[in-house]
From TrEMBL:
<dbReference type="GO" id="GO:0005765">
    <property type="term" value="C:lysosomal membrane"/>
</dbReference>
<feature type="transmembrane region" description="Helical">
    <location>
        <begin position="60"/>
        <end position="81"/>
    </location>
</feature>
<protein>
    <recommendedName>
        <fullName>Lysosomal dipeptide transporter MFSD1</fullName>
    </recommendedName>
</protein>
<keyword id="KW-0458">Lysosome</keyword>
<keyword id="KW-0472">Membrane</keyword>
<feature type="domain" description="Major facilitator superfamily (MFS) profile">
    <location>
        <begin position="250"/>
        <end position="461"/>
    </location>
</feature>
<dbReference type="InterPro" id="IPR036259">
    <property type="entry name" value="MFS_trans_sf"/>
</dbReference>
<feature type="transmembrane region" description="Helical">
    <location>
        <begin position="137"/>
        <end position="159"/>
    </location>
</feature>
<feature type="transmembrane region" description="Helical">
    <location>
        <begin position="323"/>
        <end position="343"/>
    </location>
</feature>
<comment type="function">
    <text>Lysosomal dipeptide uniporter that selectively exports lysine, arginine or histidine-containing dipeptides with a net positive charge from the lysosome lumen into the cytosol. Could play a role in a specific type of protein O-glycosylation indirectly regulating macrophages migration and tissue invasion. Also essential for liver homeostasis.</text>
</comment>
<feature type="transmembrane region" description="Helical">
    <location>
        <begin position="349"/>
        <end position="372"/>
    </location>
</feature>
<feature type="transmembrane region" description="Helical">
    <location>
        <begin position="88"/>
        <end position="107"/>
    </location>
</feature>
<dbReference type="InterPro" id="IPR020846">
    <property type="entry name" value="MFS_dom"/>
</dbReference>
<feature type="transmembrane region" description="Helical">
    <location>
        <begin position="198"/>
        <end position="219"/>
    </location>
</feature>
<dbReference type="GO" id="GO:0022857">
    <property type="term" value="F:transmembrane transporter activity"/>
</dbReference>
<feature type="transmembrane region" description="Helical">
    <location>
        <begin position="20"/>
        <end position="40"/>
    </location>
</feature>
<feature type="transmembrane region" description="Helical">
    <location>
        <begin position="426"/>
        <end position="446"/>
    </location>
</feature>
Length: 461
């Protein structure tokens, strides 16, 4: 419910209170993104120990989005968020996230792979796929539902506490914390397996971290309950928008700004997150980095975004220019992947490409997510974020599978021990970047015609 007037200050007007709320939900997303990428630096170990092919690994990575796409879980999650509220939705789906992560961990244990609960059943069908892969996919699919809807909920929380204030900066800082989870995963996951390379160890740590994240969300719930009580008690508060109706979901697709920002989201993120699933192995195969250090090179990406996203968010709060910055970020995305695809395997090129990608990965999210409330009324905001995340998940499901299949196809007949050729998979990423640039251009054109105000500052004077 949008608020047009308030006679008294609420807890959200306290800087310390709203930034503390941001801290709690940002830590939650750090734990979620840590587990999301925890397997990425372990692709080589999965090939050697579990017998997974590159296509199998890509199928596992794509399973993250299967339920979100085919069962429309993000749509239902968005409707639940708009109808049942932030506290219930967040708590329930963080719980789903933890359950899925546990199944993912269990799939990597000796207990399961030596005939534990569920092994024989999973080994009785689709025998071309190993039981460990199937169990991991079940877990990762459940986890994907939980973490994506948790992300939608956190976006709604930030709008609730920061709308008309430092919203882009707040979203930038939240994204920086999430990228911090990626950094920890890429850098620490190979080391956490130990000298004996036990894959389940980092996953066990990830499950524990998620439980701590749930406890942090409980702290947010107490703050949010107090805010709702203050708003309800203020008789001068006036609702400016109609209550949400399920039929409102269809109205989103009559909004050209929504359609374009959804397309930009799926194209841009399909060229980033699926890439990060394969990037540590790319660093080993093309650039000759040791497996233990490959994740650290990829970790340059979240390090850059942790620093730059809040800075760009603060700039857009005060100066605007979000539509233009989304175009610039898409252009940098093309440049980065072109380096990976076509330039020689010199380590200097690897560092340069990761740094450029870090700028792109800071520009576009910092501009895109705070733009959604300018395009969509607040009563439909939860469903709008959910629909955008669902469309994004189509790319997150298909592109890892496609990258794995193209990688196997491009290296068919390769001599054992020879380095894999990543040129063709990276050409797919370049194509995504070009398409994202075209969509960002049309979004800027539509913004000028419709007057969304994407290039205007976020802070209301």
């Amino acid at each position: 419910m949008a608020i047009t007037k308030a006679a008294s200050l609420s807890i959200r007007d306290s800087k310390s209170a709203r930034w503390f709320v941001l801290l709690t939900v940002s830590f939650l997303m750090l734990t979620g993104y840590f587990f999301t990428d925890i397997m990425s630096p372990l692709q080589g170990m999965l090939r050697d120990q579990m017998g997974w092919s590159n296509s199998s690994y890509g199928t596992f990575a794509g399973s993250y989005s299967v339920l979100n796409v085919f069962c429309l879980m993000l749509i239902f999650g968005g409707i639940i968020l708009d109808k049942a509220g932030i506290r219930f939705t967040g708590t329930f789906f963080v719980g789903i996230m933890i359950v899925g992560a546990f199944f993912n961990y269990y799939a990597m244990t000796d207990t399961f792979n030596n005939g534990g609960l569920g092994y024989d059943f999973l080994n009785s069908f689709l025998t071309d796929y190993k039981p460990s892969l199937k169990m991991a996919m079940i877990g990762y699919a459940l986890f994907g539902v939980g973490v994506e809807i948790a992300g939608i909920t956190v976006s709604r929380i930030i709008v609730k506490w920061f709308k008309g204030k430092e919203m882009a900066l707040a979203m930038g800082l939240e994204m920086a914390c999430a990228r911090g989870g990626m950094l920890i995963a890429f850098s620490a996951s190979p080391w956490m397996t130990g000298a004996d390379k036990i894959i389940s160890r980092p996953l066990a740590f990830g499950v524990i971290l998620l439980v701590i994240g749930l406890l942090a969300f409980f702290v947010h719930n107490m703050m949010d309950k107090r805010l709702d009580a203050e708003v309800a008690a203020d008789t001068s508060v006036v609702a400016s928008e109609e209550e949400f109706k399920a039929s409102d979901v269809f109205l989103l697709f009559k909004n050209p700004g929504f359609i374009l920002i959804s397309l930009l989201c799926v194209l841009f993120y399909s060229a980033v997150f699926p890439f990060t699933k394969f990037a540590p192995d790319l660093m080993v195969q093309k650039y000759g980095f040791a497996e233990e250090f490959s994740g650290m090179i990829v970790g340059l990406l979240p390090i850059g975004t942790m620093i730059l996203t809040p800075i760009f968010g603060a700039f857009m709060d005060k100066k605007g220019k979000s539509a233009s910055i989304m175009m610039l970020g898409s252009l940098l995305l093309i440049f980065s992947h072109t380096i990976f695809a076509f330039l020689p395997g010199n380590t200097g090129f690897a560092f340069a490409a990761m740094i450029v990608l870090g700028f792109a990965f800071s520009f576009v999210p910092a501009a895109m997510w705070p733009s959604v409330p300018k395009i969509i009324p607040e009563s439909r905001l939860g469903s709008a974020y959910a629909m955008i995340f669902m469309i994004q998940n189509v790319g997150l499901m298909l592109f890892p599978m496609l990258l794995g299949a193209v990688l196997d196809s491009a290296n068919e007949g390769l001599a054992e021990g020879a380095a894999l050729n990543y040129t063709e998979p990276m050409m797919l990423m370049v194509g995504c970047g070009i398409a994202a640039l075209v969509v960002a251009f049309f979004l800027r054109v539509v913004d000028k015609k419709r007057g969304y105000g994407l290039d205007l500052p976020n802070i209301q004077e």
